[in-house]
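Protocol step 4 of 6: structure prediction from sequence.
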Amino acid sequence: LRELSPPDALPVDGELGALLAGLSLADLEAAGLAEPLRRLRAGPKRATGVWLRCLRPAATHPRLHLVGFAYAGGAASTFAPWGALLPSEIALHAVQLPGREERASEPFADALLDAGRAVAAAVATLDGPVVFYGHSSGAMLAWATTLALGELDRSPSLLLVAACLPPGALRGAMEGASHSDPLPWAVARGLIAPDVAAALRADPLLSSRFAADFRLAASDLPPPPVLSVPLGVLVGKADRGFAAGEVEAWLRRSGRPLGVETVDGDHLFLDGRRSETVASVRRFLTKVGLPGLGA
C-alpha cells in the first residue's frame, strides 16, 4: 500500500488493511485493484486547486459560493462548522494558505498580492456568484484577492471584512511590531489573550504560522483604490484590538458601502459566536439581493 499512497493520504486500515497488507503491487494490478485503491487512498477530490478547499458543496447546483479567509494562524478548517449553519444552496469554500494542514510541507506565502492572485485564479473557476468573508488578517487577503480578481475582469458579488483595520491603517498599526515574533504586539493590542499567546508560543508550528500570516498581512499592496464591489463590515462588540470606528473606515474603500454589523463577541467572534456571525453574513446577502439566501 505504501507504493499507492501519497504522504497525506487517508488511511486504509481494519479488515481491509489486513487483507491487502500481504499483496504486492503486481497482485493488485493483476486484480484490477491498483487504480481504485489509489483513488481511495488519495481521498475525495474536494479542492479547486490547492489554494481553495470546498468544505461543503451545495445540495444542488450552487446559487452562491461563500469563500472564507481565516485569521492569522488559522486554516481552511476554521470555517468547517459554518456548513451546518448555511442554506443548502450555498457552497462553502475556504482559502488554504501554504504551511498548514494538507499544505504543511510548503513554505509560507510572503507576498499578499501574489497570494491574492493565486486565490483569484482558483476562485475564477467557480460558476456563479461569489462572496468573500475575511476575518482579521484574512480580511487583508480577501481584499488582495478582490484586487487580483479585478485583473481578471471578475469581482465578488460581496466583500465582507471583519475584525481588521483597512489597508494602510493596518500596516501603520503594525509598525514597531516584530515580524519574527508578533505575539507581544498582538497581546498588547488586545487581539489575543495572554494565555492564548502562551499556548501558541509553546507550539512552534502554530507560532510560526501566526508569525507568517502576520508578515503576509503587513506586506506591500498598491495604494488602496475605491472599489465598486459592495462591502460590509463586521465588528466584535467586545473586541479590544480594534475600535469599531477604526474598522468602519473600511466603508470608505467601496463606492457601495453596506454598513456595519456588530456581533456580541471579542476579536475572534468567528469562533466564539458562529451562529451570530453567520446570521450577520446572511443579512448582508439580503442587502445585495441574493434571492432566497438571506436570513
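Step 5 (inspection) to follow. The longest strand covers residues 227-236.
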